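For homework, think about our next protein:
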Amino acid sequence: MELRVACVQLNSGAEIGPNIAASSALIRQAQRAGAQFVATPEVSNLCEMRPGRAAEKAFHEADEPALQAYRALAAELGIWLLAGSLVVKLEDDPRFANRSFLIDSGGAIVARYDKIHMFDVDLEGGESYRESSRFRPGDRAVIAASPWGDIGMTVCYDMRFAYLYRHLAQAGARILTVPSSFARPTGRAHWHVLLRARAVETGCFVLAPAQCGDHEDGRKTYGHSLIVSPWGEILAEAGEEPGVILADLDLAAVDTARSMVPSLGHDRAYSR
């Protein structure tokens, strides 16, 4: 079976309305190019790290305008759509969920995934992030059924935790989604090697739509959205500007890669 996929690369800003308009235009472009499955980056609806401002702009899931727009767009275009992640208010926590939504071609939400691993780091040059102060981490790995096989859902910083991807692949995932808003210093050093490693060690296709450029809230993201084969080959790569990349996936390549290097079945217990 073959599947044409697209990653939408965005430079999301600090207002939800313009972000919906910009991302929807690129999703339509991807569908016109034949994409059956389209993925957007992390925080597609709202890039807003400045203290207090996200609380004034974000919505609970039931009222989230980007989610409503994406569901309607998926149904209109007849595509599967990954809303890479949306900033969503929670009922029982002052923090937000960093939540990925998989939407089918009828506009129904097939699966939700809350980012598990929080990006709490101090980078060179004084660049610092404390995601755990703004987002409540998820506690559940998620695999969703699709017409093209099971999809393992992750977000950005998750990619540094190889055991999560191994778990998803051993549970049946054949495609892994990694929507991201990757910082430039770590992007230059680690983006390509981490995503290619996750593909190789799982024998999965990896779709990694990314944020890019300078954002209103001060963050600077790396771009370079990637689509990677189960053998670790880069099938498509974006640059540093908003846009769309596409690739045709031969899903038989998953079985081929796993038969050549069947490492998913070679786990051993060990002690230290």
